[in-house]
Structures are given as C-alpha cells and as structure tokens.
Design goal:
4 domains, Barwin-like endoglucanases, 6-stranded mixed sheet, Rossmann fold
Length: 449
C-alpha cells in the first residue's frame, strides 16, 4: 500500500531504527539518533541503513518493538515531526463502558469500509479494559488481512475517539491525559450555543435575538415586543415541541406541529395565554427567540443545512448544503415534520430569484458564517462534524439558526444526489483522528517511492 510500511523485527539488543538506503535519504543526514513515538510511548533509537530491507519495509530491533508494544499485524505510516519519528496512526475507539457491551457493539462497528483510509493500529475497547496503573488496554485490534477484530493487550493509543456515554470523572481522566486528542460529538444546548456564538462580534448580526425562558411572563413580554416569537426546548431535535406565538392586535395564538398536523390555539386575553404557558412550560428548559421571516414562498418556511466536517488537515470544511421547504403552514421545515429537501441551488434560483453570480456569492458567505460559528464552538468542545442550520430572509440577510453537533443528520443529502457529502461525513471521524494522531494530510510522510 502506497505510503505504508511493514515493520520487520531485527534481532538486536540495542534500540535501532533501520532503513533501506533509499528511504534513509529522507531523514536528515545528521540524524544519527532520534526518538520514536508509538501512541503515548516513546524510545530513543540510533538510525542506520540495512540493504536487505525493501523500500516498503522498516526495521526495528526487537527491543524497540517490545518496549513500544507495537502490534505487527498491520502496516504503518511514518511521520517526521520536529526531528522525531511517529509510527502510526495509532487510534483508539472507546466504544463502551463494559466489556460485554463492547463485544455486542463491535459486531455493528462500521469501520471496515474506512480501514484503507487510515492504516496503522485501530483498537476498540471499553472503559473496563483500561488499566491505568500499567498504561495498558485490553481490547480488539482490527486486522485488515482477516477483516476481523482480534483480541489483545495494547499500550495507550495516540488519540481516543469516544463513542459511548461516560461519567464526568472518567471523561476528566481522559481529557487530562489526552487534551484535544480525546474527542467526541458534543451536545451543546441552544442557550449555551447562543451565548458562545454571541461572544463573537462578527456573528452577532446573524443571530436571532434569543432569551432564556424563566417564567410565563417572559413569553408574554417578548411577544408584545416582537409580535411573533418561537419557543424552543433547550435540547430539542427535529423541530419537536417548537411553538410559534403570534400577537394579533389584542389577541394571541400559538401554532405548532403534532402528529404530522398543524395546530392552532387562540387566546383572547393575557390571562388565557399565561395560563396556557404555565401548563405547558413547567420545566423552564426553553429559549425564546425572535421570529425571522423565512416565508420566501407563501405559507412555506425555507431554510438550509450545511454539512461541516473537520478534515485530515484539522480544518473545518464545508462539504455540502441542502435546502429545506416546510409543509404548508408548518412552523418548522424539518423532514420529520413533513418538510421537503431540495438542492440549495434550486431554491436560490427559483424561490429567491437570484442570478447565478448572486447565488454563488451568498453561498460563499453562508459557508464563511457557518465555519466561523463552528470555530467558535470548537473553543469549548473538540468536535469534528456539525449540521449548521442557516437561512436567508426576504432581504437576503443571512441568519444562523443552530449548530447540530450531537446528531447532525445528513442522510437527507442523499435524497438530492449528494452522496459524496455522505461519504465525506462518514469518513471524517477517522481522518480527523488520523490528523490528531500526528498524520495530517499536508504533512509529508515517508513515502515508499
């Protein structure tokens, strides 16, 4: 495999790295000694040439292999950073808390299709498999030859991808040990999201004014100020439990979706409205948000979703966008509530009546705003993908609605033929892990030619 090496054990008591003469030229001529890293382990070695090695082989003395506990079932890439050598990537997937659940989840782990992207050692393990005293892990390594997960004992990897819920204490331990190299899909509620995004002055003009719901009078007061508001659960998904309040003269109404139907309740007085709010919003886990006029087509709200991923260069990348058109009279555009998905370009040209140049310009601005927002959230949480809900009003002003980091939901992209977006999103987790493990895309690894 191009760029990958087979590690050959060499019977030597001293710690040596041995290279084919053509490969050794890639190292600095003065580099007679260096440090090899494998996961969190490292050892100092001397470097020398060995003519019997092939161009796609690297020789390590058995003492180095034993010291670093390098599995030999797989091929590795080699990265040179600051004069030191990384062998890997060595990625750990924390899949469960217990070994029993790990074995069940391992059968469903969709890694086989991605194995050719990563190379190196990929181990799946549970929290129970971690031995903190010896810095070893009992888990399973993926063997690309047999296409099976094989049980073994391994050193701590270079990066850990969390794919299970953990207690605060366990997360703190791994966060302290790995820093940003321990990553996952982070759940950030809508109020925290707004507070973090509004700390960036460039994003403020694109954020609907948002308030934390504390008491029933909050809804009434903001409704009188804005005339139309949305009340959303802090951690809601798919438009569930979102209600739209409208002030019409001295009367009020609330609109919402339930059981795939539009519903409206009218109130004649402030008291009637307050009694309704008291009965429906007891938990106080809601936000109040000013309405944005997204009714580009009569009785249909329209917004967009941008798919963002962290790529193998560690940068946020916009890999696609779709438009979503809500069902007639609906307060939300989500597909789960009857909405339809369309290509963004179609909506730009036909619904917004933009020229191709105008559409291209607005699309670029939307991408820039979405990436800036993801970078802002990234200051607090190490995330690698996000579904950014973004919209354009009648005056072509861009509004940032929400970032969905925990369950971004990109399956709808395939409905409009954007399968390449699905593939890029699917591969992003392991490619970003590869970057964190010390193997960025732009970094020149030791190639085999």
């Amino acid at each position: 495999m191009d760029g990958a090496f087979k590690i050959i054990p060499i019977s030597e008591d001293s710690p040596y790295l041995m290279l084919n003469p053509k490969q050794s030229k890639l190292l600095d001529e003065t580099m007679r000694k260096t440090t090899i890293h494998f996961g969190l382990q490292k050892i100092k070695v001397a470097c020398k040439q060995l003519n019997t090695l092939k161009k796609n082989e690297i020789g390590l003395s058995t003492t180095v292999i034993e010291n670093l506990q390098i599995p030999l079932e797989v091929d590795y890439e080699v990265s040179i950073q600051n004069g030191e050598i990384l062998i890997g990537p060595f990625i750990g997937i924390l899949l469960a808390n217990s070994r029993v659940i790990l074995e069940n989840k391992l059968k469903k782990l969709k890694y086989i299709k991605q194995s050719s992207l990563v190379s190196g050692s990929v181990i799946a393990f549970s929290w129970e498999g971690i031995d903190q005293k010896s810095s070893k892990i009992i888990g399973y390594i993926y063997n690309p030859s047999s296409k099976k997960w094989e049980e073994g004992t391994f050193p701590f990897p270079a990066v850990i991808v969390r794919r299970t819920a953990l207690s605060t204490k366990r997360k703190k331990y791994l966060k302290n040990l790995y820093g940003s190299r321990f990553f996952h899909l982070a759940s950030v509620n809508k109020w925290k999201m707004y507070r973090r995004l509004s700390s960036n002055k460039d994003l403020i003009p694109h954020l609907p004014k948002t308030f934390l719901y504390k008491k029933p009078e909050d809804i009434l007061n903001h409704l009188k100020s804005f005339r139309t508001i949305y009340v959303k659960p802090l951690s809601g998904l798919q438009g569930i439990r979102i209600k739209k309040f409208i002030a019409e003269g001295d009367h009020y109404c609330v609109k919402y979706r339930r059981n795939q139907e539009n519903n409206t309740i009218n109130f004649s007085t402030d008291t009637e409205l307050l009694n309704y709010v008291k009965s429906k919003f007891k938990s106080k886990r809601y936000i109040i948000q000013q309405q944005i006029d997204l009714e580009i087509e009569k009785n249909h709200s329209i917004d967009f979703r941008i798919a963002l991923i962290k790529n193998q260069s560690g940068k946020w990348e916009d890999v696609g966008m779709i438009g979503r058109k809500g069902i007639k009279g609906s307060v939300v555009s989500n597909l789960s509530n009857g909405g339809k998905v369309k290509r963004a370009q179609t909506i730009f040209l036909k619904s917004l009546h933009l020229s191709k140049d105008e559409a291209l310009s607005i699309r670029q601005k939307m991408s820039e705003i979405a990436i800036k927002a993801a970078e802002e959230i990234d200051k607090y949480e190490t995330i690698y993908k996000s579904g950014v809900d973004i919209a354009i009003d009648r005056h072509h002003h861009i509004w940032l609605i929400e970032l969905n980091n925990l369950t971004p939901g990109f399956a709808s992209f395939s409905k409009v033929g954007l399968k390449s977006t699905i593939i890029k999103v699917s591969n992003s987790r392991m490619l970003y892990a590869k970057y964190l493990a010390g193997f960025p895309k732009e970094k020149e690894n030791m190639g085999s030619d």
